[in-house]
Amino acid sequence: MSGVQQPAAVVAEGVDMDFGTGAAMAVKDAGFALGRGRFLTILGPSGSGKTTLLRMIAGFQTPTRGQILIGGKPADAVAPHRRSVGMVFQKLALFPHMTVAQNVAFPLKMRRFNPAEIAGRVERYLELVRLGGFGARRIHELSGGQQQRVAIARALVFEPELLLLDEPLAALDRKLREEMQLEFRRIQKELGVTTINVTHDQREALVVSDEIIVMDQGQIQQHAAPAEMYRRPANPFVAHFIGVSSFLKGRRSAAGIEVNGIDCAGQAVADLAPGVACLGAIRAEQIRIAPAGAPLPGCDTVVQGQVTDIVFEGERLLCFVTLPALAAEVQIYHHDPAGLDQLAKGASVSVGWTAGDLLIFAADKG
Amino acid sequence: MSRSQKITIWGLVWFSIITLSLPTLVVLGASLTAGNMVAFPPQGLSLQWYEKIALARDLQQAFLRSLIVAAICTAVAIPVGTLAGLALSRFRLRFTTAIQVYLLLPFTIPLIGSGIGLMLVFGQWHVLGSLWPVGIACAVINLPFIIWSVSSSAVLLDPDLELAAQSCGAGRVQTFFHVTLPAVMPGVITGSLLMFILAMNEFLVSLLLVDARIVTLPVLIYNSIRSIITPDLAAVSVVFIVIALAVIWLLDRLVGLEIFLKSK
Ligand SMILES: Nc1ncnc2c1ncn2[C@@H]1O[C@H](COP(=O)(O)OP(=O)(O)OP(=O)(O)O)[C@@H](O)[C@H]1O
Ligand SMILES: [Mg+2]
Question: Is B166 on the interface with A (CB under 8 A)?
Fold first, then answer.
């Protein structure tokens, strides 16, 4: 994001939203900048303020503090219908009394395009979302996924500068959802439109985005690229929310973290004074597991444990292992498609990890 | 459902149908009589009374006046009732309780009360003696019906639909005509047909507001009954019933269709 010459497409500065219900603020001090043509996903648990933030960007709600700039201008300086913002609503909000083609033509009609151009564009965009030939259908004659694509076509057809998506895939089955995620990515790259997508599906966020913002309780926890977000979570909440992580409670030591009197190798994400309470987080696929006594070459820390449960997930196993020495339980992904390792409930095992994979946070959150 | 339950339910259904339609059937029978007296069962069958009312100038004119009153009432009620119904369902208005009480008025205030009130107002303005005050009076008195009808449609409207229209570039007016109005159309149609038929049939308020030169059909019938009841009045009543049925049929066609278009 070297947007020095060009202003960023969307900028939020110290944005608060207080609905005045006496409850905590829906959005607190949100700030970020998004470059032109980028695909941002806002990810967070239910009630974390994602929709509220998106609606403020769309101009449907005014922040109680701070400001949102779109293309350098304050979002609420322009009436909603004059903004160049396409939106796909969570419940789609297609016009039920119009056909598919009329729905897609509506933004063009409102913008007074000439009829020949309208017809051409509607056809082109229905083609783009693979709904060519569906123009004459009524909305209720389409499947959920097809309706979804009509909503996308309607949001894209007037070639807005900004596309906002509010959990548009939440209602679809997993297979269709994954197809649509890739479709989104393809269309977005093809048109180069700046996109902000809201979801609570971490997989979707990782798959489709250039950048991810993780929110919790109205606050932005981290803003980073998917790979960085995954590898370098900023705090235990992010580590917990993205992927499957296990946590170890202890105190900062020279090698990493001292848990229950045992020194475990790890890497602190920030400067932590020796002896302060901290939290180690490690991802399920970064812990290695082997039958008790078998060597675990390359691991900086090896401890003994017992398998308490095994979940078969197809391409991999999810093992729950207690580590009595650390007074902790960890979750471990184990790739063993042929079932050769004979891990079973109750088996004694060795588990280990390298220092770089155990991330150490100050123990104030999570 | 057990057999005895079935019998009970169907028994009740038929009992209701028969008691509710009995007056209609009696009037229909009486209108078809070949004799000169209102009687049920009719003495022989003939259409002579229909022939007679079709030729009666005073009846025709009164009928026309009733149609005009109903048309004025509907024309006034559609914009007012639609906007009021939308406002009521959309905004958290002040005086909500007061408005709800107003909406119950048709059931609480005797018509004679509102009728006299309107008579005084229109009399003060010196507009009695023409038809349009009657139409407006009918609209005023029955307005709650169309408001109900529209607002019950409007509460089903997803507010995101209007935001979606805005984000498509539609301004307030365009959003209203392209999205809001079509969405509440079933309510508007139902309400306006109801207003039409209520104004068509309105008797008490008409009685207070018309004079001898501009009697509406229900008033004319009432005047005739006071002298002598002849089978032509039964025939006129049947015409009324047919109009009501036509409106119901229309409603079913229009709104039924509308709901069909909307259905998910
Ligand atoms: N119109 C409103 N009035 C009052 N409070 C609201 C309003 N809209 C949202 N909130 C509150 O603001 C907080 C954030 O809501 P928001 O809808 O932004 O969450 P979300 O992250 O989109 O959740 P989800 O994933 O469930 O859609 C919630 O606590 C919610 O109760
Ligand atoms: Mg939401």
Answer: yes
